[in-house]
């Protein structure tokens, strides 16, 4: 894989809009998860595609060159081809100056059209962006020439390009040729034939290989946001990422890597019973300092107090599968809440809970102008991706496959995960073998009888799910999979104790290799009833052969062919222990300037409330009780926070209570707007509690 470094310098202000806005600014510029301006990779890819297609049309080239660069969708039995070119968000060299541009529309009489005043953010002229375009290995030389030509031909970026906005010029590091010289060289090599599709892996029955297997500690250092949805977004145009990189995505990327080198080895590896993939979960330390902690998808039984139990911000944690507890005595009366998240076990043995809501995400809006159907449609959608981080997990492979994979990653560690892999999901992957004598130590100090499902586990189709509880079915699946019997824990009055806790759902997918039970002639996989990640079970005794059971996973099958294993189903890990702290990332507070009175009020309340201050849901409860010009219900509700709620609830409101109450009584409409903006501030910039 080769990389093309380029610098894009703005000659005029550029409106690099994100498609997102608020009541102050209609369209704000695109920013990363740290609030820094960026030139989106998806925008850059669209510009290069349009530029290259226009040049190719004028020169009489066929469409094969564009397909090599940007990929070909599958249709009519053709599985398509992945693009050979991937893009990264370009970032400013130094500090970028952000300014606002306000404009309106005029009538033919020269007066302002009503409701047309619009304010947008822009990057100031003179700002330089540094970017990188990567090209896969083993592609025709014409691809490299085409990318360089398209980059040098970009004349403007962002919105308002027809009005002179975003004018720019591009320079490429170590490129001495002029655009005309590159064009003449490309004319001689543009006829390169259609792009190749991915090498398919053949599904074979599971094989009983030797007992020896190689365990790998896998660490993925993401440079770009990652979007790996756990369920399809069928009811909206929002694509939301799950909490990590699923085992199926890890399997697909690594098996595809093997298939590109030796298809027969990939076939054997997928069929071998020694092959098992676990999801890659974020570790919360993208700075690379020290060894990443071991992440485990949290059990459904793991709970955290809703509010701090002490003034120093300490939370209470309980897990009924690890240690039964009396719900009347825990957390000094503070309610306990369960939720999705990750348990991070540090090298010192301490465990921290990283709640899903605290994991940083990047929200981007997209409008696809390039429509391959020729109908010139615009597909407007929003993507919620995980912010760049270090992701860690486990992989077990036959020794030959593990050795070949390690060699491949050493030569080229670049890997992409998730959706739109040419514009997001890129990073470097490292796979380190774990010596056999050190394998038991990997789980030293962990729970010996409590296990947490890390990837979906298939429920056999012939089971009667209508007349059985999810917990009973999970206990049966554990027993039939060879893990042993579920513990029998006696329950006492008022005590919470869990032996199994299951969440179930329906999952289906798609894979380029056609592995699994398909639907019709497509590569879509049929829907499966599954237990979802986070389901937990407690065994009556510790397993004798823990590595062997983890390798087998959770799922019933014929012989060693565990149901769903080829889709990454059934990955299990021991419970790392009850958390003792809440993991939070340090965040930079954004500087917010408001031109509206409501915005100024909201910013003042947010700053004055201090830490922890009212939560977004508490603010929303007040705002929703303001009805038009009547704020009586909201005022009464807010007053009850002082007179009728627990002290810790009142303390959140104490510093701003009088100000907010007076504003609601004097100007309910203005208070409603200010409360909404304050709610957004709390969501976007959560303060450390305690």
Describe what this molecule looks like in 3D.
- The protein has 690 residues and is an alpha+beta fold.
- The protein folds into three domains: 2-187, Alpha-Beta Plaits; 214-290 and 360-581; 597-684, no CATH class.
- The chain is 25% helix and 21% strand.
- The protein is built from 15 helices and 34 strands.
- The strands form ten sheets. Strands 8, 10, 11, 21, 22 and 23 form a six-stranded antiparallel sheet that branches.
- Helix 1 (41-59) packs across helix 3 (141-153), helix 5 runs antiparallel to helix 6 (263-271) and helix 10 (597-609) packs across helix 15.
- The longest helix is centred in the first third of the chain and has 19 residues, at 41-59.
């Amino acid at each position: 894989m080769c990389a093309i470094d380029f610098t894009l310098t703005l000659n005029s202000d550029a409106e690099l809009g994100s498609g997102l806005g608020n009541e102050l600014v209609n369209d704000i510029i695109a920013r990363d998860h740290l609030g820094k301006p960026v030139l989106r990779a998806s925008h850059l890819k669209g510009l290069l595609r349009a530029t290259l297609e226009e040049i190719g049309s004028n020169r009489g080239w066929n469409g094969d060159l564009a397909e090599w660069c940007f990929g070909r969708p599958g249709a009519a039995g053709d599985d398509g081809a992945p693009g050979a070119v991937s893009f990264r968000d370009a970032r400013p060299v130094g500090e970028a100056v952000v300014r606002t541009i306000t404009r309106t529309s005029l009538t033919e009489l020269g007066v302002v059209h009503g409701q047309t005043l619009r304010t947008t953010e822009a990057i100031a002229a003179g700002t330089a962006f540094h970017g990188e375009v990567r090209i896969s290995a083993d592609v025709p030389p014409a691809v490299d020439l085409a990318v360089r030509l398209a980059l040098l031909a970009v004349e403007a970026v962002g919105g308002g390009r027809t009005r002179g906005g975003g004018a720019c010029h591009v320079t490429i590091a170590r490129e001495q040729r002029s655009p005309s010289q590159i064009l003449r060289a490309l004319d001689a090599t543009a006829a390169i034939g259609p792009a190749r599709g991915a090498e398919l892996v053949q599904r074979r029955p599971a094989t009983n290989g030797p007992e020896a297997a190689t365990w790998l500690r896998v660490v993925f250092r993401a440079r770009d946001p990652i979007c790996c949805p756990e369920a399809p977004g069928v009811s909206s145009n929002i694509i939301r990422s799950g909490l990590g990189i699923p085992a199926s995505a890890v399997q697909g990327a690594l098996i595809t890597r093997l298939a590109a080198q030796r298809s027969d080895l990939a076939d054997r590896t997928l069929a071998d019973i020694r092959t098992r993939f676990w999801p890659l979960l974020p570790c919360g330390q993208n700075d690379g300092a020290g060894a990443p902690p071991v992440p485990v998808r949290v059990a459904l039984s793991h709970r955290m107090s809703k509010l701090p139990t002490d003034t120093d911000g300490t939370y209470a944690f309980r897990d009924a599968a690890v240690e039964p507890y009396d719900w009347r005595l825990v957390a000094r009366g503070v309610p306990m809440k369960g939720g999705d998240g990750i348990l991070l076990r540090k090298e010192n043995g301490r465990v921290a809970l990283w709640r899903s809501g605290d994991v940083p995400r990047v929200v981007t809006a997209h409008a696809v102008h390039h429509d391959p159907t020729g109908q010139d449609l615009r597909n407007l959608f929003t993507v919620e991706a995980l912010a760049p981080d270090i992701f860690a997990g486990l992989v077990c492979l036959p020794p030959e496959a593990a050795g070949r994979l390690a060699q491949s990653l050493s030569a080229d560690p670049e890997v992409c995960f998730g959706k739109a892999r040419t514009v997001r999901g890129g990073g470097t992957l490292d796979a380190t073998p774990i010596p056999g004598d050190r394998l038991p130590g990997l789980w030293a100090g962990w729970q010996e009888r409590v296990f947490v499902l890390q990837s979906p586990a298939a429920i056999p189709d012939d089971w009667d799910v209508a007349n059985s509880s999810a917990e009973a079915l999970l206990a049966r699946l554990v027993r039939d999979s060879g893990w042993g019997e579920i513990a029998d824990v006696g329950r006492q009055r008022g005590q919470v104790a869990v032996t199994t806790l299951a969440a179930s759902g329906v999952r289906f997918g798609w894979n380029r290799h056609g592995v699994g039970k398909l639907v019709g002639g497509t590569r879509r996989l049929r829907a499966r009833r599954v237990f979802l990640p986070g389901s937990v079970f407690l065994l009556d005794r510790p397993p004798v052969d823990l590595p062997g059971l983890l390798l087998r996973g959770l799922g019933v099958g014929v012989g060693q062919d565990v149901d769903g294993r080829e889709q990454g189903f059934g990955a299990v890990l021991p419970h790392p222990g009850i958390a003792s702290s809440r993991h939070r990332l340090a965040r930079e507070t954004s500087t917010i300037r408001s031109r509206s009175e409501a915005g100024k009020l909201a910013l003042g309340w947010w700053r004055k409330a201090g830490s922890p201050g009212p939560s977004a849901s508490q603010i929303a409860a007040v705002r929703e009780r303001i009805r038009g010009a009547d704020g009586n219900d909201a005022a009464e509700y807010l007053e009850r926070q002082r007179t009728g709620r627990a002290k810790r609830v009142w303390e959140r409101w104490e510093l701003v209570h009088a100000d907010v109450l007076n504003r609601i009584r004097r100007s309910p409409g203005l208070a409603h707007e200010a409360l909404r903006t304050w709610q957004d501030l709390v969501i976007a910039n959560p303060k450390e509690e305690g």
